[in-house]
Design brief:
367 residues, globular, 18% strand, alpha/beta, binds threonylcarbamoyladenylate, binds magnesium ion, 11-stranded mixed β-sheet
């Protein structure tokens, strides 16, 4: 299959869709209308879109990603009127959340209506819906005249894609089009909140944080077991996708997190030394602060490894923005061992740690 690259030149430069961009986007929308697939930017990560109401399109999405078909897709809407035909009922909690966070990086799981094919929901009787705020995503959905099923636009098992280059890497020859709208602001996938039962439950942390949800709903919100730690034999996550070792770099990764007042830079230096002795190609993914400390205390270590900065320790948004990109870079460089710095789990830190815990297969060193 030939993959057409659709570059939104003016949008990338100005952040506003010009008439020329809109014409290009209409071509991508036509592909979706015809039952084809197009990757497109959202504020979280790129999505691999197809018509959510056509089962053949859903099947194509699974094939293009190499994803197991029991893992349901998120249905993307561009206005609230598109929501009601997809769902069985609108719980009060969902209404409050939608009022405050839609459009935005929030997905909610509802009991589904018959309009949504079982192929789209991986056979579940619930449907995940998201109303993105990204102007390109919204225009594309609107022009397509339908609702768009879109998982993250990466090959299954690879980090999610946060710019068009990543999509080109993973999806060339697998989708009809890739819409290049520049890099995604947030860089981590949406928060998923299950509102299909009486009590809302967090299934995946994201930029709409647990603190924000608690404040909005005025209640203590439960978290799915898959967020809290590695699942035990036989335990099942509510979001089927959470059971896979997503976001996995090729390298072994150890996550170093401060919990007992220890030194992050000291601990990563020790880990790196050990793996360098084993002649492994090593990388360090950490804050500017950690790099500065190592420059003073262990400058030789920094020379022997690939150093990737995740920005300042105090700027979690920047860490989120670059995480998947850094993981992809390290894959491309055939890194075999990664020492990575974690962060506190407050606010956006919860989503960051969730992705890093999975990337490290829960190999965490608390210092
Ligand atoms: O930010 C995002 O959410 C991105 C952009 C493209 O919107 N999409 C995304 O999709 O991350 P995906 O397919 O990579 O992750 C969707 C997650 C999976 O873990 C899946 O199991 C879960 O959502 N999910 C989807 N439908 C569900 C449902 N009905 N019940 C429970 N979990 C569901
Ligand atoms: Mg994904």
């Amino acid at each position: 299959m030939e993959t057409r690259l659709i570059v939104l030149k003016d949008y990338k430069r100005t952040g506003v869709l010009s008439d020329a961009d809109k014409t290009e986007l209409r071509a991508a929308a036509q592909i979706l209308k015809n039952g084809g697939l197009a990757a497109f930017p959202t504020e979280t990560v790129y999505g691999l879109g197809g018509d959510a109401l056509r089962k053949e399109a859903a099947r194509k999405i699974y094939a293009a990603k190499g994803r197991p078909s029991d893992n349901p897709l998120i249905v993307h809407i561009s206005n609230m009127d598109q929501l009601y035909p997809l769902i069985d009922s609108m719980p009060e909690a969902a209404r409050k959340m939608a009022d405050r966070f839609w459009p935005g990086p929030l997905t909610m799981v509802f009991r589904k209506s018959d309009a949504v094919p079982a192929e789209t929901t991986g056979g579940l009787d619930t449907v995940a819906v998201r109303f993105p705020v990204h102007p390109v995503a919204r225009a594309l959905i609107e022009y397509s005249g339908t609702v768009i099923a879109a998982p993250s636009a990466n090959l299954s098992g690879r980090p999610s894609t946060t710019n068009a280059e990543h999509c080109i890497e993973d999806l060339t020859g697998r989708v009809e089009a890739i819409v290049d709208g520049g890099s995604c602001d947030i860089g981590l996938e949406s928060t998923i909140l299950d509102v299909s039962t009486g009590e809302p439950v967090l299934l995946r942390p994201g930029a709409v944080t647990l603190e924000m949800i608690r404040e909005t709903l005025g209640a203590d919100i439960g978290e799915d077991a898959a967020i809290k730690g590695p699942l035990e034999e036989g335990e099942r996550p509510k979001a089927p996708g959470m059971k896979y070792r997503h976001y996995a770099p090729k390298a072994q990764m150890v996550l170093v997190t401060e919990r007992h007042g220890g030194s992050i830079s000291g601990a990563v230096a020790e880990l790196l030394e050990k793996h360098l002795r084993e002649k492994k190609k090593c990388a360090l993914l950490c804050s500017e602060e950690c790099i500065a400390e190592l420059k003073l205390s262990r400058p030789l270590i920094l020379e022997g490894v690939t150093v990737k900065s995740s920005g300042s320790r105090n700027d979690k948004s920047e860490m989120a923005h670059v995480l998947f990109e850094r993981l992809r870079e390290m894959d491309a460089e055939d890194i075999e061992f990664i020492a990575a710095e974690g962060c506190s789990e407050e606010q956006l830190g919860k989503a960051l740690m969730n992705r890093m815990q999975k990337a490290s297969a829960w190999q965490i060193l608390y210092v």
